[in-house]
Design goal:
Layout lengths: L5 H14 L10 H4 L2 H63 L2 H20 L4 H27 L9 H11 L2 H11 L7 H22 L4 H16 L1 H22 L7 H17 L4 H21 L4 H12 L2
Length: 323
């Protein structure tokens, strides 16, 4: 139905008044005459009401942004703090699971014992190689951790005096030398004589910890106590055996120079650095000298039969004595 405008209504009223003298224009009320005007203005008023209603909502629309902004700015430190707290909590929880430093070393030594058995097992060459890689990696970790416990972290100031003062006692320790040994053979084929000294040392550490913490365990009372007493009684012989294994590994490297799998650089470093260091280190010097003496007795008949072998042997002796 078409909506009449106020001008049209006025013209109708005037025409009716002119045609009928008795017609009273006052009988037509403004509400009747202009009843259509609210309907025409309703969309604008509704739009105005909508705008008025929407205008208070703008701060509400902006509120999440400001809240997000302020919340993000206020929550970011809380988030970073909570993250840091969470990380610290996880780190502390992990350390609590591992226990003390002795417990961590016990776990590492136990892993070395199991992996060492995996290296020498004859069933699978692939398993032996993987166990060999893991054995050397755990050896690096365990000996590095013991170095950090004994000597702490190196300081660089004043450089190089502080670093030298830290390195001198470290270089003469068995842990550093076995750390170097593990690094040297990390990329080579498995060699049982390299595993032996590290494995024997881990075995002694394993039983030393077990004797202190599992002394009341029935399995320890039945089996472990006797094994621990046997190892303690033969510790000197075990260390001489370790020295012999280290020397034997060097001899195998020399023989390996005659094969396609030779490693000239590894052999040079082993004979130029590792064996002389073990020969002169206070912890292992006596056992290496004893092992070399036993080897000289065994090799004496061969040296008398082949005198030309005295030349390389005398050269090696001079290299060891120069240290």
């Amino acid at each position: 139905m078409p909506v009449e405008t106020p001008e049209g209504l006025r013209s109708q009223v005037l025409s009716m008044a002119s045609s009928d003298p008795s017609f009273d224009p006052s009988l037509v009320t403004p509400s009747t005459a202009f009843s259509a005007s609210p309907s025409t203005q309703a969309p604008a008023d509704e739009a105005g009401e909508k705008q008025h209603t929407a205008s208070p909502s703008r701060p509400a629309a902006d509120e999440p942004a400001s809240t997000a902004g302020s919340g993000s700015s206020s929550s970011r430190p809380a988030k970073s703090g909570s993250t840091a707290k969470g990380d610290g909590g996880l780190k502390g929880f992990g350390l609590q699971l591992l226990g003390s430093s002795q417990t961590r070393l016990f776990i590492l030594h136990s892993a070395l014992l199991l992996l060492g058995l995996g290296v020498v097992q004859p069933l699978s060459g692939l398993l032996s190689y993987r166990a060999w890689r893991w054995f050397l990696a755990i050896s690096v970790l365990s000996h590095g951790y013991k170095l950090s416990l004994k000597h702490g972290r190196p300081t660089l100031r004043p450089f190089p005096a502080a670093l030298k003062a830290w390195f001198v006692p470290v270089a003469t320790s068995t842990d550093f030398q076995y750390l170097l040994l593990s690094f040297m053979f990390l990329q080579t084929r498995p060699m049982t004589l390299v595993v032996v000294p590290i494995w024997v040392l881990a075995l002694y550490h394993f039983f030393a910890y077990a004797s202190q913490h599992f002394s009341s365990n029935p399995l320890w009372v039945k089996y472990g106590a006797d094994a621990h007493r046997f190892l303690s009684a033969n510790q000197g012989q075990a260390l001489v055996f370790n020295a012999g294994a280290e020397i034997g590994a060097g001899l195998l490297l020399l023989l390996g120079l005659l094969t396609p799998a030779r490693s000239i650089m590894l052999t040079f470093i082993y004979w130029r650095n590792f064996l002389p260091a073990r020969y002169n280190t206070p912890d292992s010097s006596a056992y290496h000298r004893q092992a070399w003496g036993m080897l000289a007795e065994r090799a004496a008949p061969v040296l008398r039969a082949v005198p030309m072998l005295q030349v390389p042997i005398s050269y090696i002796k001079r290299g060891f004595a120069a240290r």
